[in-house]
Amino acid sequence: MAHIHEKIDFTASVFIVHEGKVLLHMHKKIGKWLQPGGHIELDEGPDETARKEVREETGLEVELIGSRAADPSIPGDIVPPAFINRHHFNETHEHIDFTYFGRVIGGELRPEEGTHTAFCWLSREEVEANPELFPATKAYALAAIDALA
């Protein structure tokens, strides 16, 4: 987990949709249900980070939804995120998150080694009825379900 600056970092995360439900996990530091994701390392693009963090945190391989350039030979082309969000992680630190939508293409759901992460697959109705979700988490989860279900 790289911190590029003491006040703000870039992150990437993925709302994964499978069989009409979105995957959330209990964030070990803040105790809230969130999408998998993490800090963008200096040698990574946001789409690389998004896929890597999902693999590390969940064991799943995902396809990110979004189009690259019309010519696949263009080097350095990045899958565009569904949203970009700036938010406070705590009182002194902010994140700019490249928020992706994705679908499962392989792997098996399992917690990251050394953590006790809980997972849940939520339907649209369960997301709408959950009062504990951050407003952005709820809105993006519903948008992901709408886009990929």
Provide a descriptive summary of the structure in words.
With 149 residues, the protein is an alpha+beta fold. The chain is 22% helix and 34% strand. The chain has helices at 46-58, 124-129, 135-148; strands at residues 8-18, 21-26, 33-34, 37-39, 60-64, 83-88, 94-107, 119-122. Strands 1, 2, 3, 4, 5, 6, 7 and 8 form an eight-stranded mixed sheet that branches. It starts with 7 loop residues before the first strand and ends with a helix.
How many beta-strand elements? 8
Helix share bin = 10-25%
What is the alpha-carbon Rg in Å?
15 Å
Overall pLDDT: 90
Order of helices and strands: EEEEHEEEEHH
Question: What portion of residues belong to β-strands?
Answer: 25-35%
What is the general shape? globular
Give the helix tally.
3
User: Could you describe the largest sheet, including whether it forms a barrel?
Assistant: 8 strands, mixed
The unreliable regions are none
Alpha-carbon distance between the two ends: 32 Å
Task: Indicate the structural class.
Answer: alpha+beta
